[in-house]
Amino acid sequence: QPQFLVRGELTGRTSGTRHSVAVQRNLAGELVMRRQGETLRSAAALADSLPILVINAHSFELLNGEPDNRRRFLDWGLFHVEHSHRASRRSFQRALSQRNQLLRRGNISSIELESWTHDFASHGEAVALARQQFLDRLAKPFSNLIDALVPELRDVSLNYRQGWAGQTSLQEALNNSADADVERGFTHIGPQRADVRVMVAGRSAAETLSRGQQKLVVCALKLAQGQVLNQASGRRALWLIDDLPSELDADKTARVCMALSEQDSQSMITCVDRGSIDSQAFGGGAGCSVFHVEHGCVTAAV
Q1: How far is CA 181 from CA 98, 187, 289, in A?
Q2: How far apart (Å, rounded) are the C-alpha atoms in residues 116 and 196?
Q3: Which of 74, 53, 69 is nearest to 269 (CA)?
Q4: CA pair distance 229, 238, nearest whole angstrom
Q5: E strands along 43-93, which residues?
Q6: pLDDT tens for residues 13-53?
């Protein structure tokens, strides 16, 4: 088809108020988003209406993928939990872009470079601090979920690397690396280089855990994020989980389902074998609906 349209209706849990959202995209890549019939200018406005947490095959990249996967994980939480952080992050991204353009240009004005370096350092410090504070808030629910989902693991921790040597301010670190930045043509230290690593007894989880254990650790990270969202704002995410039983036996799948049930959120879960997910894990099965998908057709299971 030349285009598609997806529509949904959101209902406030306490207020009962309803509003519609819609997304339309065509083969040319043009995207139109609407809320209550009004066109939205950014995806952020739509994301603000409906926080979505996804667990799928790509979620393993939280452990073994590139650092930008983990930075996005942190920034998703900050976007939905710390609204005041949004302006700092936009200002930081602008300063980073402008500083890098200047470094690539050559024949650099020292005054102009100092100006963008100051802005970059100021907003970068704010971004780094906000990420650290969010990670601190995440640590306790993550630890509790590790105990519930992977009790055999001990000494599991989150190791945050802010993107420059911690004993110096970002401004000082940028001053020390100015010549290297000019030579390379880009800013090579700062929050854009930040990373978070899950460590188990001092070793990287990505290198030491089995595939099934990795999936449970990823689930713990995501579920902890959902808990923090609810605790901080009273909001609940919509969960989209693809092929949950993959890499997990029946007992471990049930553990994840029970943890999801405690989130008291709407969840959409896919699996290949209907019997691999026990609806009883979701509060006795009340409120659960099952659908069968075959050849592009979706029907309610009997």
Answers
A1: 13, 5, 56
A2: 27
A3: 53
A4: 11
A5: 52-55
A6: 777 788 899 999 999 999 999 999 899 988 888 888 889 99
Cβ 210 vs Cβ 167: under 8 Å: no
237 to 40, 61, 206, 229, 241: CA distances (angstroms):
20, 21, 26, 8, 12
Checking DSSP bridges between strand 195-200 and strand 291-294, what pairing results, if any? Answer: unpaired
* Percentage with pLDDT > 90 across the chain: 75
Angle at which helix 85-105 crosses helix 67-81, to 10 degrees, equals 140
Is the distance from CB of 244 to CB of 271 less than 8 angstroms?
yes
Q: How far apart are CA 150 and CA 200, in angstroms?
A: 12
Position 67 pLDDT exceeds 90 = yes
Which two structure tokens, joined as six digits, stand for 45? 């406005």
% residues pLDDT > 70 (the chain): 99
Question: Rounded to the nearest 5°, which phi and psi values hold at 37?
Answer: 85, -10
* Residue 28 phi, psi (nearest 5): -80, -5
Q: What is the pTM of this model?
A: 0.91
Edge-to-edge strands, sheet with 203-204 = 156-161, 195-200, 203-204
Give the mean model confidence (pLDDT) for residues 154-180.
93
| Alpha-carbon torsion, ordered 145, 260, 256, 283, to 10 deg | 120
Which residues, including other chains, have CB under 8 Å from residue 250's CB and lie 6 or more apart?
276, 278
> What is the rounded distance in angstroms from the CA atom of residue 210 to the CA atom of residue 180?
40
Residue tagged 């969840």 (tokens): 267
Task: Locate the DSSP E strands across 12-117.
Answer: 18-26, 31-35, 38-40, 52-55
pLDDT tens by residue, 258-279: 999 999 899 999 999 888 888 7
